[in-house]
Every structure is written in structure tokens, then in C-alpha cells.
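Changelog note: in this version the structure field was regenerated for every chain. One regenerated record is shown below for reference.
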Amino acid sequence: MPSTAKQVKVNAVAGYGANITRCEPTLVAREATASAKVAETGATLVPPYDDFHVVAGQATAVIELLEEAEKKGIVLDAVICPVGGGGLMSGTCLAASAMQPGIRLIGGEPMGADDAARSLACGSLIPQTGPNTICDGLLTSVGRLPWAVISRHLESIITVSEDEVKTAMKLLWERNKTVVEPSSSVALAAVMSKACPLPPGSKVGLILSGGNVDLNNLPF
């Protein structure tokens, strides 16, 4: 885990009985530390996003969403999902476009970690450098495998400010009674943003993923 990981996440991981190894909060440090652990223990590395099996597994979130909407007689016009490493977003793109061709697929990203938005705008993968956002689950660069999917399927990525994230998070807590972290709140912040391209009255599905919250240090 990175040295900057929130204590609430560290405590949760330790609570499941894991042995925690800390490293510097950079991609290079994470990969080097993980490789050293694999060499030392013979463990199998499970990538967080840049892997076919992980993308397929994360695709099940939108499958459940679309199936639940269908049961209620709702046909979604669009799905919005946060973008970090891109595993969840790319899985969402593949499953949603297969189940409901023509559905609009939109990503949400904090302005302080907008590598995916910049990559989509220029058409080539731009690494994340110097991210600065409370959305600590979205700090990493988009993986090469997710990017290959996102670049083909994603309509756009809406970037949102820290204040927009906090407002969305507070609304989800107060009105929806849903405990989400800032990274999750990006999806709602995106659909509430003036930059959202969806017309009023659209039926929009949001992927809310992540509830690691320090209750003693809520951003709002």
C-alpha cells in the first residue's frame, strides 16, 4: 500500500488479515515493490485493472445495473462511470455496448487527475503525472488494456472540480443514504455538471464504486 494511503483503508486491509507492505505513492514504486514481493514469496500478482480477467469481472457491475433497470421497465440512455486505472470503465463499455447497442457511455474524472480525459482528447495515452485530488482511488494512470477499450467506446469524459465532488458526495449521503468515497461521487458530480452532454430528462445509470471513508475526516 502507498505510504499516503488513508488510515481507514489500511485498517480495513489489516482487519482482513493481510500483511501490509508500504511503498512510495508512485507507479514505479508500486510495481517495483510488488515485483520484489512476487520474487520473494512466489505469489501470483493480481493486477488491479490492466488484465483481461479483471476487466471482465468489473464488467459485471453494469450487467447487474442494466438487468435491474430492465426488470423495472427502464431503458437507460446512458451510463456514467468513474475513471482511474480504467478497469471498471472499460468493462462497463464492453458489457453495456454488447447488451444495449447505442447506449451512451461517459466517464467521470477529477480535474486534478485528468489523464484519461486528456488522452481521449488527443487520441493517445498520456501517463498520469502529479495528480492532486481528494479522489485517491483515481490517482493512477489508465492501463494500456483499458485504454484500448475506452478509446474506442467512450463518448466523452467529464472532468469535475473538488467542490463538485464534495457536493455530489454529500448529496449521496444525505438523500440516497449511500456511503460513498469521493472517487465514487465523481459519477454523480459528472451528471450534475454543466459540461454533461445529456439532455434533460435522460435516464442515466451511475456506477458508484468505493466506500472507503474516514468518518472522522469527511470532506464536506
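Spot check on this record: The mean pLDDT is 95. Residues 41 and 88 are 29 Å apart (CA to CA).
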